[in-house]
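[Discussion] Sanity-checking designs against the backbone

I'm trying to build intuition for which residues belong where. Below is a structure token string of 89 positions. I'd appreciate it if someone posts a full sequence so I can compare it with mine line by line.
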């Protein structure tokens, strides 16, 4: 295995990790921001009020994007194994 192949594999893995984190975290961040704006507008200073909407949105993101994320990760794993087989044999 050459360093170029190793770097290419690591770059692909890091891109997949960043993409999956973005898919799961960004909806929760946007929901938290919206709840914080509502709290600031209504002057309700309850710290636990934003937890449930963020949790529900994150669970909804997992439900909606879970199949896609699993398929994307499986495709990457298959490509890694195919590249490994090509390097060995």
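Best answer:
Here's mine. Compare freely.
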């Amino acid at each position: 295995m050459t360093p170029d192949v190793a770097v290419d594999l690591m770059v692909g893995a890091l891109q997949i990790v960043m993409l999956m984190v973005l898919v799961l975290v960004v909806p929760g961040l946007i929901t938290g921001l919206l709840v914080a704006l509502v709290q600031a507008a209504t002057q309700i200073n309850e710290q636990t009020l934003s937890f449930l909407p963020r949790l529900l949105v994150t669970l909804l993101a997992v439900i909606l994007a879970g199949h896609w994320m699993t398929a994307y990760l499986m495709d990457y794993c298959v490509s890694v194994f195919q590249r490994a087989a090509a390097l060995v044999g």
